[in-house]
Amino acid sequence: MAYLLVLVFFLAALTHGTPKEYSQQGEGALLDSLKQQVGLLTNETKNYSPQVQPPGTNRRIPQSIIIGVRKGGTRALLEMLDIHPEIVVATTEVHFFDWDENYAKGLEWYKNLMPFSYENQITVEKTPGYFTSSLSPERIHEMNSSIKLLLILRDPTERVISDYTQVYYNRLENQKPVQVIEEIVIRNGALNTKYKAIQRSLYDVHMENWLKYFSLDQIHIVDGDTLIRDPLPELQKVEKFLNLRPRIMSSNFYFNQTKGFYCIRSEGRERCLHESKGRPHPMVNSTVLEQLQAYFKDHNQNFYRMVNRSFDWH
């Protein structure tokens, strides 16, 4: 039906358009232009303009949410899952369940921020702040007690450094004063355990709250360190968890030597994550690293017991 509409517009353009317009654009270019004007590029909703509702689609509450963790690789995971034709993604972080001012706007407001999707497609939203929010588990459970949750984690010490790096560059760009990481992580000769970046890496503490509301088989943990090195195996596990046909292939990825990580090849296009992703980490004093690793050790072991799985974390 979509392409029939395009054909009608195309024939009308040939009939009523000026010879100059047609000769300059050419048949193929004119057809592409008309497709773009009516939002009809393929039969997949992700190629439509956000303002145009494709026939047979609706906005739907997410059937799966990437709940975190911040600087764990949530954006990479979302972009890579977007390759799958049966997945549509919300492109922005909504912060519905962790920000009171947004939650007060109601579920209809939340749904209206979701992309259009067909009935056979899964809508995925990601907001990394959900994992460390004390309110999010109960609120998401109230919305849908059977929802499937995705949690991507990486080595807690590396995650702290990545968290610091993001804030460091943001402050530089906004011409604000910056501190070296050692000055923040260490206070009065001891580890500053109140530092938010450290708090976010206490995976066992936050996971305990989620397991009050969801069973472990509803939460799939993606190994963020593995996803960076070799994306496909981790994505295949997600496909299985979401009961999707295996459609993501090794050909969908290529290693970008300049950036130092994998980029995406899909629908004839190549794209990499934003330049703010994958920034080089600062050199950190080895003693500070050892203190961080020692602090996280017991928390990591506790987390392994909670999820019946271990990770290659220091």
UniProtKB/TrEMBL annotation:
Domain of life: Eukaryota
Signal peptide as annotated in the record: 1-17
Record-level GO BP terms: glycosaminoglycan biosynthetic process
Pfam families registered for this protein in UniProt: Sulfotransfer_1 (PF00685)
Catalytic residues, chain numbering: K71
Keyword annotations: Disulfide bond, Glycoprotein, Golgi apparatus, Signal, Transferase
Gene Ontology MF terms: [heparan sulfate]-glucosamine 3-sulfotransferase activity
Catalytic activity: alpha-D-glucosaminyl-[heparan sulfate](n) + 3'-phosphoadenylyl sulfate = 3-sulfo-alpha-D-glucosaminyl-[heparan sulfate](n) + adenosine 3',5'-bisphosphate + H(+)
S-S bridge residues: C263-C272
UniProt EC number: 2.8.2.-
Binding site for 3'-phosphoadenylyl sulfate: K71, G72, G73, T74, R75, R154, S162, Y262, K277, G278, R279, P280, H281
Localization per Swiss-Prot or TrEMBL: Golgi apparatus lumen
Stretches assigned to the Sulfotransferase domain: 63-299
Family as reported in the entry's similarity comment: Belongs to the sulfotransferase 1 family.
Function: Sulfotransferase that utilizes 3'-phospho-5'-adenylyl sulfate (PAPS) to catalyze the transfer of a sulfo group to position 3 of glucosamine residues in heparan. Catalyzes the rate limiting step in the biosynthesis of heparan sulfate (HSact). This modification is a crucial step in the biosynthesis of anticoagulant heparan sulfate as it completes the structure of the antithrombin pentasaccharide binding site.
UniProt cross-references to PANTHER family, sorted A to Z: HEPARAN SULFATE SULFOTRANSFERASE (PTHR10605), SULFOTRANSFERASE (PTHR10605:SF18)
Descriptive protein name: Sulfotransferase
